[in-house]
Write a structure and sequence with these properties.
alpha+beta, four-stranded antiparallel β-sheet, elongated, membrane
């Protein structure tokens, strides 16, 4: 029979493990987001710059703000999560655009980048948590949300480009939060964590 002291120590240890897992999850999720953006930037910044050149020419000609390449890359990064970018129209309502799906297929592979990075993050989180079963691993891996969600929300606003009269070009906020920020890290982080738990020795 365990004493109250040992029971308290056990509860404290469990709480400590949970807190450590949450910290690791937040760090791994944040790193996955940043790495995903960097992969898109390194591989697509030239293409994005070329695509924006015509728009920026007229924006500069008429004294408007040009669209930064890093912002355009952000749109493509969210497209890789199947989050559309809202583009205002002069004659109609805003249009939802996915530059990846509307491309010639040259960079559709980018849609694989966020899941792969999040699966790796899930493995790392589960390993750090010492998960020994798929269920425990999945629960640990899903903690990637703690780091991925805040950056997904910040990015949805950071990559916004104001056009005028309150209009803007930006990732669709609802899907940026729910799909990119919640579903992606929860699902793929859990997949990686479950795999780590299933193969734990």
């Amino acid at each position: 029979m365990s004493s109250p002291a040992s029971g308290g120590a056990s509860a404290t240890g469990a709480g400590s493990d949970l807190g450590r897992s949450a910290v690791v999850g937040a760090a791994a999720g944040a790193i996955s987001y940043v790495l995903g953006y960097l992969v898109v930037y390194v591989t697509q910044s030239g293409r994005v710059e070329e695509g924006l050149s015509g728009i920026n020419f007229f924006a500069d000609l008429f004294g408007g703000d040009t669209i930064s390449v890093w912002r355009g890359v952000g749109w493509v990064f969210y497209n890789a999560h199947f989050v559309d970018v809202e583009v205002p129209s002069l004659i109609d309502a805003a249009q939802s655009v996915n530059f990846i799906s509307q491309s010639d297929g040259g960079f559709t592979y980018l849609s694989v980048v966020p899941p792969l990075l999040l699966i790796v993050a899930g493995v790392a989180i589960a390993r750090a948590a010492g998960a020994t079963t798929p269920v425990d691993g999945a629960q640990s891996g899903a903690l990637a949300v703690a780091g991925y969600l805040p950056l997904a929300v910040i990015g949805a606003f950071l990559f916004r480009y104001a056009v005028g009269d309150g209009a803007s070009v930006a990732p669709t906020l609802v899907t940026a939060v729910l799909l990119a920020g919640l579903v992606y890290p929860a699902v793929f982080g859990a997949v990686g964590g479950a795999a780590a738990g299933a193969t734990a020795e």
